[in-house]
RNase adapter RapZ
Amino acid sequence: MTQLSSFVLVTGMTGAGRGTAAKALEKLGYYVIDNLPAQLLHDAVSTVEQGGEISRLAVVIDSRSGTFFNGTIDALEQLRERGLRAKILYLEAADEVLVRRQEAARRPHPLSIEGRLLDGFDRERELLRRLRGRADLVVDTSRLNVHQLAQRIRAAFEEGEDGLRASVVSFGFKYGIPIDADMVADMRFLPNPFWVPELKPMSGLDAPVAEYVRSQPRAEEFLDTYEALVSLLTDGFLHEDKRFLTIAIGCTGGRHRSVAMSEAFAVRLRSHGVRTLVVHRDLGRE
């Protein structure tokens, strides 16, 4: 009998990308079981471990299982008591995005009544509320295509040192704060390159903009402060077995300051051995 080295529970909203996440995990070497009733979770894990050939397991459990979903948390606790803790990946997106995706798929929502999609999403969000609160990693897929989501999954779950892993997300406040952020930083205290004619058409990925933003008096102070904060929190996160951290860095439009500072902060994190993915959520949106 072989103990699993990694066990991931994939869940979240209908249309948020659970299937894409499952395929990405499969490519990372996970054996994936989709739409498993919670009551069978313990037996499924035992069967896989007794087989001795599979070391990485991912299970998709969601609202499609209907009343079978209700025992999910109890099933996870039973596994934890025997020494196996699931890493919970929760996928969500804004309602308007979920509706658009579901309509494009031409499938009814499993919890909708008389075909009203929003009613179904409301019921589903309430059903999943407790599980979301236990999630190790929450990913908002509203602005992600399938390739970007797969990249997020690879960065979080590919094999490597079992330490803290971070996603640094730049964004524009006028488009809303990322709903999956653990920490949010506001770069609007820095002068805006948008008002510098030669910098306006560029982005924070361009060297002149990055140099302009980093040269501001408080820019390095911010990086020093946030670097110290993450360093302070890391031991606590790992002690609580929280290994995924999403840091959102915003400015007005998500083009100049937030992009430059996200790239700079990612360099700081990597210097501490934190595996870090940078996502520029709103770059190119204007």
Notes: The longest helix spans residues 219-239. The beta strands are 6-12, 31-34, 56-60, 87-92, 137-140, 165-172, 183-186, 244-251, 275-280. The longest strand covers residues 165-172.
